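About this split. The held-out portion is used to measure sequence recovery: a designer receives only the structure tokens and must propose an amino acid at every position. Recovery is the fraction of positions where the proposal matches the reference. Here is one held-out target exactly as it appears in the evaluation file.
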């Protein structure tokens, strides 16, 4: 998808901003002031601003969000920012893949109007001391194993919403808990931002695309399919009339053991209500099967909606 010879415009510019399409490369904006100035230029126009926040290392999952925004006719702003506050001590902040030139090459053909690439000083200036947190929804699943992670996410998303002032923002179902948390934030803080959640994009063998898949060596990559296999096992169990979350989880754990071999170590395997994210006593209505598994040293997450009776 990389386009050779693409050129990128850096910084602000006067006058009109070209709407992103195949013919125009995205504008790159780096500072809060540049972002605000650009956004103000759209005030009073008919433009609907769609926003796709990312941490870069872009793949087809990210691009699917951009295409969803484009399909709705949005003028699309993509942010690329590896947000340090959502990484815990000992997590992969320093190792996280960063390749802006490659990312810009991928975005060039996808019709983004703007790529916003702030640095840490822009997002967290000296003396920064305000956080945004969503209570309750962030307690379980990834919140349990990654304390402080969602506070980092909600703080940076609230800031990005203030800078970009989107009409709509696009998130992936891949991070189901994050999507639920952001929906709640958007509603509770009266942001007026419509949250659009897009389906998970997978590899042909079912592995959900993730920037962290780049950490996997070939053996781990083969083992990593155990997440999706466990989820489809849950689906099969429910289709066969199983309603006990404990029995479904046991079957999922077994699949992870078999398919993942010695390389896979589950952090959690849960069956929850898709909205409240609370554990369900029985799978007798739409339910979310969600899991986090370490494959070697790489933590992967995935999820699948279960529909009993279909
Ligand atoms: P990240 O760069 O990992 O923070 O992800 C940015 C956005 O892309 C989030 O809303 C993710 O949920 C979404 N995303 C990541 N992987 C996928 C995928 N495989 N399919 C769909 N959306 C994804």
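Reference sequence for scoring:
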């Amino acid at each position: 998808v990389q386009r050779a010879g693409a050129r990128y415009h850096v910084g602000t510019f006067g006058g009109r901003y070209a709407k992103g399409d195949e013919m125009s490369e995205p504008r790159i904006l780096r500072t809060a002031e540049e972002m605000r100035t650009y956004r103000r230029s759209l005030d009073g126009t008919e433009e609907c601003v769609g926003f796709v926040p990312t941490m870069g290392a872009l793949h087809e999952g990210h691009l699917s969000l951009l295409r969803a925004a484009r399909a709705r006719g949005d003028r699309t702003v993509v942010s690329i920012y590896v947000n340090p506050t959502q990484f815990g001590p000992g997590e992969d902040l320093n190792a996280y893949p960063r390749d802006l030139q490659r990312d810009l090459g991928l975005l060039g053909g996808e019709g983004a109007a703007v790529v916003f690439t702030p640095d840490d000083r822009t997002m967290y200036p000296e003396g920064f001391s305000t956080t945004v947190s969503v209570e309750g929804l962030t307690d379980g699943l990834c919140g349990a194993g990654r304390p402080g992670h969602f506070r980092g996410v909600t703080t940076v998303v609230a800031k990005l919403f203030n800078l970009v002032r989107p009409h709509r923002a696009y998130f992936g179902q891949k991070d189901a808990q994050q999507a639920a948390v952001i929906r709640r934030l958007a509603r509770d803080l009266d942001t007026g931002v419509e949250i659009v959640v897009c389906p998970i994009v997978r590899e042909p063998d079912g592995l959900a695309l993730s920037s962290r898949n780049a950490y996997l060596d070939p053996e781990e990559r083969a083992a990593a399919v155990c997440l999706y296999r466990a989820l489809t096992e849950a689906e099969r169990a429910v289709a066969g009339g199983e309603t006990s979350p404990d029995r479904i989880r046991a079957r999922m754990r077994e699949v992870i053991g078999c398919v993942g071999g010695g390389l896979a170590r589950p952090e959690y395997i849960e069956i929850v209500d898709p909205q409240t994210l609370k554990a369900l006593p029985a799978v007798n209505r739409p339910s979310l099967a969600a899991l986090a598994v370490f494959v070697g040293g790489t933590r992967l997450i995935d999820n699948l909606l279960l529909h009993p009776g279909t």
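Annotator remark: The two ends are 38 Å apart (CA to CA).
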